[in-house]
What does this fold into?
Amino acid sequence: MKSSISSKGQITVPVEIRERLGLSPGTAVRFELLDGGALIRKTTRGPHPVDRLYGRLKLKRPVDELLDEMRGPRPKRP
It folds into this structure.
């Protein structure tokens, strides 16, 4: 599929691509430069939802201890 850039630097994304990727007016996108071209990716505005939660989990025991309890003890290193 092809499109062209307007005098204002705007690009029309073909309907099939907009529908498949769920791109609607106001959807944030990111451009990445590649050798010989560029890549456009759908992204989110603002921080990633996981980043907003970082550091909020308060545990009574160390994470390694909890993982050992769930998975079993880790093998001893030689």
Helices lie at 15-21, 49-53, 63-71. The two ends are 57 Å apart (CA to CA). Residues 15-71 form one domain. The chain has a mean pLDDT of 88.
